[in-house]
Design brief:
Layout lengths: L17 E3 L3 E4 L2 H12 L4 H15 L9 E8 L2 E7 L9 H6 L18 H12 L9 H9 L1 E2 L2 H18 L6 H7 L11 E2 L4 H11 L2 H5 L1 H13 L5 H5 L4 E3 L2 E5 L2 E5 L6 H10 L11 H21 L16 H8 L19 E7 L5 E7 L9 E2 L4 E2 L30 E5 L2 E8 L5 H13 L5 H6 L3 E5 L2 E4 L5 H9 L3 E4 L9 E6 L5 E5 L6 E4 L1
Helix pairs in contact: 1-2, 2-4, 2-5, 5-8, 12-13, 12-15, 13-17
Length: 537
Amino acid sequence: MIKFDPLSHRFQSQRNIVLSAGGMVATSHPLAAQIGANVLRRGGNAVDAAIATAVALTITEPTSNGIGGDCFAIVWHGGRLYGLNSSGPAPVSLSLEELEKRGLEEIPPVGWIPVTVPGEPAGWAALSERFGKLPFADLFDEPISLAESGVPVFPTVGVLWKEAYNFYSKLCRGEEIFAPWFESFVPNGSPPKIGSLWFPSFYADTFRRIGESKASDFYCGELANKILSYSDKTGGYFTGEDLTGFKPEWVEPVSVRYKGYDIWELPPNGQGLTALIALGILRKDTQASLFDPQTAHLQIEAMKLAFSDALEYISDPYFMEIDYKAFLDDAYLSSHRRLIGENASLPRPGRPLKGGTVYVAAADREGTMVSYIQSNYMGFGSGLVIPGTGITLQNRGCCFSVNPAHPNAMAGGKRPYHTIIPGFITQSGKPVGPFGVMGGFMQPQGHLQVVMNMIDFNCNPQEALDAPRWQWVEGKKVLVEKDFDRKILQGLLDRGHQIEVATEYESFGRGQIIMCDESGMLWGGTEKRCDGYIALG
């Protein structure tokens, strides 16, 4: 168990640590967390709770995820870890040639071209079938009631909704293909205000169909017909085979040993490998202090090297030219460590993109633990909504490369590089717990920082999340939060880093952590940078 020392830090935690000897659900929205905890109280396990929470998040936080997105999970159950990759591929008929035909030199963020097959509903069903205790349909009861009775708009959601409205108004206003988005999410001509009630009743029938059919309706039933009909009507690329052919993939999580702990991520096409490479590079370094400029310098330089590998090689694993496990080879990691000097370096990758995601950590009193993440990408995704259903289609195809020689080049039937990553920690074959940090390409950077905060600097989960964060952006440019330690800032400037102090929390991801100590007590931390909440079941 990580030895937490809450008295050793100078920063002021924004929230108190939450402890429970029973079940716990941590996520970015209080209503969704409470729905998950209610499932625990009804006899469900952590997997049931995570699914119900995930369903609820599509309406409590539609600004960051939706039914038409993808999901990934790491589950500790019955003494071992399981991994689920439920990310969908590009439609078979989509290709780089189609981009060329349309005169496009890059993948647009909206419209049909960046839309990939939604994996989320099938992922919910797969998790329930393998691990759940309650009937799948029962997990939709409270989200349906909430959709019909109205959802209060919380502060973070309200801010993001306004940003999304400005974004889609600029790119999509006036085009008939995007009209359902405006009808669904700005029905009165402006985004819902903080503190108002939003009534997404049109989600209720969609939830019922997914729950009662164990998600099959989404891929080969009435919902599938609606998706295909809208695709045909508006110039999309989906065929029936794209939907019926999709199946979630059970995968083996991959790990790196870090100072007595095993840190677990999922293998590509997700970018969890990026976090593992960075941690692996620093695995033999002794960090003097959380407030030592050299610590931040090493972290940033290790992350640059990890991204250089990730953006060059990560793709759908069936298209990768190099076995991803080679990047975690001890000699390879040591050679990367030797590349880090005393000053800031210029890496190869380009500028990371901003994304929108939700994360759930859940645990029950029987010992099952879940690290779960889902997203549409870029907030609401592609701007396409299947009329009357609440199904917002993701724009994950934006993460494809347009270079035909790149392993991540766009191709029909291929999954893109994926930003969303669940994390998990074990020690000596026993679970310590799930963790995650949302936010596009910030995610592996957040994973690196919160893991080191806990393991190297003895922070408890809440302290690990509350600690000020940095984010490498491109080249030598690094964003830091406004409460970042001034001594560290000066030390980074002295080493040649180009520092910019950010004005908003949103740039730095939103995380949740549940850790289990040797006695079985759960320690939960939730994000100060959003409306994060921990509910006990």
